[in-house]
């Protein structure tokens, strides 16, 4: 049943932020709450269509991303972190900050009951304060990343090694010429196997050496796998991405899917038993609900601390690395075999199954979500 509550969502321009905010928007709309999801045209076009039965409650608001004086710094059409090299994200932030004025006018016109904001648009907080609109930020300040929270009153081994500390700043279903769609190809390879899902998200810009060492390590492990891989900027074409002969040598036990792949369907496939990934928090939650054994290879932002937490809780194996952050194929193969087939990894696999009973518990998640909806209703602008 629809309510009079109106929530405005303002996520940062990275798909690790856009997609969770969009998923939350869908759930709020299903709960009868009117939602305005604000982003840029190119990003909104890349989201899944809004189901027709809630389209009247979920408005996708597209504000054009302002251009910079020097277009070489941020070419036209580059509206998300995935579109640009990591060193150019600073210019995306400059353009993003220029959205302050259209967003402010939208808030003035709409007078929403709530604003849910992401990490980077500090100016949204100022808009909310000026117009007395309740706001929820996912964290109070950037400095909170470096402080021990009040509730964390016990010793912990979690810490960044030097090489990771710097990272804190820093047509799948359709038929094709082969006569078999990619999803059918995947099913044929991984059926009756305990395969490893491999993915590193959109924020990890892996070097050629890193991609190739991962590939050689997966090959050495002898395990079946499904690798969702974006063609890196340094690669001339897809064939140039992987070691010469890799696909031929792993044919029959592994599939590499270039470009987009249906991540949740892959993770939920009964043949997938483990995940080799970057330990981004969204991916951690998605993976744990399926009871996968985790092999983590963190790079930037929150990934290293997430990895330490997972290892500390007995839920993951972390790839061994040198002091400079480098890793080799033997390190990849060793961790994969420990997690998936070694007797020494049985406790790890058992812990993963236990975690699935919590993270995969839909009733429990619905309870938390319903409490959140009630909180929004009871504390919106109309009740201030």
From TrEMBL:
* Molecular function via GO: UDP-glucosyltransferase activity
Keyword match Magnesium: no
Q: Which SUPFAM superfamilies match?
A: UDP-Glycosyltransferase/glycogen phosphorylase
> Which UniProt keywords are listed?
Transferase
InterPro entries assigned: UDP-glycosyltransf_plant (IPR050481), UDP_glucos_trans (IPR002213)
Q: Where is the signal peptide?
A: none
Q: Which Gene3D superfamilies match?
A: Glycogen Phosphorylase B
Q: Which family does it belong to?
A: Belongs to the UDP-glycosyltransferase family.
Q: Record's PANTHER family?
A: GLYCOSYLTRANSFERASE (PTHR48049), UDP-GLYCOSYLTRANSFERASE 91C1-LIKE (PTHR48049:SF57)
What this protein is called in its record is UDP-Glycosyltransferase superfamily protein
Traced from the root, the source organism's taxonomic lineage reads: Eukaryota, Viridiplantae, Streptophyta, Embryophyta, Tracheophyta
